[in-house]
Amino acid sequence: MVADSRVKIWYRFLPREGWPQFDKEGVWATPLGGDLARVDNVPFFVDGAAEGDIVRFAMDAEGVRWVEERVEWSGRCTILVLPVRGGPKATAKAVHEVFAPLGVGAEAYSVEFPLVALSVPPDVDVRAAKALLNRGVEAGWWDYQEACIGDAWRTA
């Protein structure tokens, strides 16, 4: 069995209004040599960060790796979906089932705060994904925020 070579890297950021008031978030990453790593999961609270990004980090005196900058964007969009409690799509599983047929990945934050972070690959039909998001808002299933998007998403 091969040992998991992933490491935890940490982002610092300003908390979003109305969201849990964290100012740092740890994500798993694969070291790429030197001070570079590839982000291996979807960030929940960091603006401008996505799964697959290549980042530069610095290690502090305690051995904690802090992200300093994104070196290369993965092309993935990060969309944060907050399901309406008690609604028909109130669980992370229900949200993911809506987007999975498009090839969109999802991670759940917690049961207490049912935030879902969607990871939209660059080869996904972003018009269809965006339409599903807006349809869900109109139906009262969820609200969402765009945490990391590119031009294809903006113009879809």
From TrEMBL:
Pfam families: DUF4265
Superkingdom in the source lineage: Bacteria
Protein name: DUF4265 domain-containing protein
Biological source species: Microbispora bryophytorum subsp. camponoti
